[in-house]
């Protein structure tokens, strides 16, 4: 279940993804498979080759790209999510969702 974003933010992310841009969208999210994880960042791009290259460049396995057309994306959670958001200057998303690097048992992918 996704929550904590506006319709305008979702529509902007979809437009960027559709244009073949690498786009970031962070929202609150709960999934019993990942206890303690409360947010996810979807990194999307309709150009799958570009998204695969982005994953490789950031040490992520492109095998885990969700190839859901028309908005393919890679889900970032845990410490890797925070690391990538910092790397790409997404301080607004880090602050808004209170994301911090930690040494907890959160998955590092």
**What is the residue-averaged pLDDT?**
89
SS class? alpha+beta
Helix content: 25-40%
Largest beta-sheet characterization: 4 strands, antiparallel
- The topology string of helices and strands comes to EHEEHEHH
Low-confidence stretches: 102-109
Characterize the structure shown.
The protein is of the alpha+beta class. Helices cover 35% and strands 17% of the residues. It is built from 4 helices and 4 strands, in the order βαββαβαα. It has a 4-stranded antiparallel beta sheet. The longest helix is centred in the N-terminal third of the chain and has 12 residues, at 7-18. Mean pLDDT is 89; it is low at 102-109.
Write the layout of secondary structure elements.
Layout: E1 2-3, H1 7-18, E2 23-29, E3 39-44, H2 48-57, E4 73-76, H3 78-87, H4 91-96
Antiparallel strand pairs: 1-2, 2-3, 3-4
Give a concise summary.
With 109 residues, the chain is of the alpha+beta class.
List keywords for this structure.
single chain, about 110 residues, alpha+beta, 4-stranded antiparallel sheet, 4 helices
């Amino acid at each position: 279940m996704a929550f904590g974003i506006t319709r305008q933010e979702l529509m902007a992310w979809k437009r960027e993804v559709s244009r073949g841009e690498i786009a970031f969208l962070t929202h609150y999210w709960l999934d019993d498979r990942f206890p303690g994880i409360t947010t996810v960042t979807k990194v999307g791009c309709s150009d799958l080759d570009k998204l695969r290259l982005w994953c490789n460049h950031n040490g992520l396995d492109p095998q885990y790209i969700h190839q859901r057309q028309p908005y393919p994306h890679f889900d970032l959670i845990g410490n890797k999510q925070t690391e990538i958001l910092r790397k790409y200057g997404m301080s607004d998303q880090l602050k808004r969702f209170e994301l911090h690097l930690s040494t907890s048992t959160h998955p590092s992918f």
